[in-house]
Write a structure and sequence with these properties.
single chain; mainly alpha; 82% helix
């Protein structure tokens, strides 16, 4: 392959990677909107159980191909189970919060997750965070406070539930870092089946028979979630993280659009200002991490010296 053709192929992969990330974020936002629509009629446990059932059906052929033992026989089982608990708790918090708040409000709070991960990585992973990233984290949390608006029209319970869900989600991301040697299929299978079992445990006390269309919509939660994960993973395979990760913030745009079209709720200036602070600080943290990673890699290469 000539340098020109290699450059062209890399550019094509980057474009496709961006498109896959946009697709993944769009699917996740549709999933969240479906959850907001359905949680007003059905208990959270039903959403978790039926969404996981449909997800499990899609995963079954892949698990069969890889082998059940290869997928579920893991070395660090307690961490996998803890991650399942985090995933279940986070999804439950999200559905609880969007039942009473506009989708864009909750999505904006959740966009603070990379900042919380940065803060938690110090005590939990032993990573070092410089003053620039700490400053960005503080700016991001100011954005969260602006969104919560504790001195104005503050709906404390769903707002704090959304913030709790963001912390739980961030903790799950930390655990995922610790389990980074596990395959994507193992991680997705554990969270799908684990969340389903936890939701199913509560079904006898909360079951509400859904009509046919609602059952399909409940199942669509699982399908869109799995499709979103597949698109995001493919995006990261095709393009460097530095190229595609910033496009995750398109989910806020979709959330605003869906709030307007479905629920007739327009974003306030306060929400937009808070979103700008959170997104700006999150992008800066990501930029610093990428720059430091490149610097560390260059230093490691230079220390090896010329090849003999």
């Amino acid at each position: 392959m000539t340098p020109t053709s290699a450059t062209s192929a890399a550019a094509s992969d980057s474009r496709m990677g961006i498109l896959m990330m946009l697709l993944g974020m769009s699917l996740f936002t549709v999933n969240d909107a479906l959850g907001k629509w359905l949680v007003s009629e059905y208990p959270v446990a039903m959403l978790l159980a039926i969404r996981s059932l449909f997800g499990a059906v899609l995963l079954a052929p892949m698990i069969w191909r890889e082998g059940v033992r290869a997928v579920f026989a893991v070395d660090r089982l307690p961490l996998h189970l803890l991650r399942v608990g985090c995933v279940t708790g986070e999804v439950a918090c999200f559905y609880w919060a969007v039942r009473d708040l506009p989708l864009a409000n909750v999505m904006t709070i959740y966009m603070a997750a990379p900042l919380i991960v940065t803060a938690l990585s110090v005590p939990l992973l032993g990573e070092k965070v410089g003053w620039r990233r700490w400053a960005a984290v503080l700016v991001g949390f100011v954005g969260v406070v602006v969104v919560l608006n504790p001195t104005g029209q503050f709906d404390p319970i769903p707002s704090l539930v959304a913030l709790l869900g963001t912390v739980i989600f961030s903790s799950g991301m930390i655990i995922t870092r610790l389990l980074r040697r596990s395959s994507n299929l193992t991680l997705v299978s554990f969270q799908t089946f684990g969340t389903g079992l936890l939701g199913a445990a509560a079904l006898p006390t909360v079951w509400v028979p859904p009509p046919g269309l609602d059952f399909v919509l409940l199942g669509a939660l699982g399908i869109t979630a799995l499709a979103g994960h597949a698109a995001m993973n493919r995006s990261l395979q095709l393009s460097p993280a530095a190229v595609v990760v910033p496009f995750q913030y398109v989910s806020i745009v979709w959330a605003v659009v869906l709030d307007l079209l479905v629920w007739g709720t327009a974003p306030t200036l306060r929400i937009m200002a808070g979103a700008l602070l959170i997104i700006g600080s999150g992008l800066f943290v990501f930029y610093r991490e990428q720059r430091l990673s490149r610097g560390a890699a260059a230093e490691a290469n230079s220390s090896l010296g010329p090849a003999e």
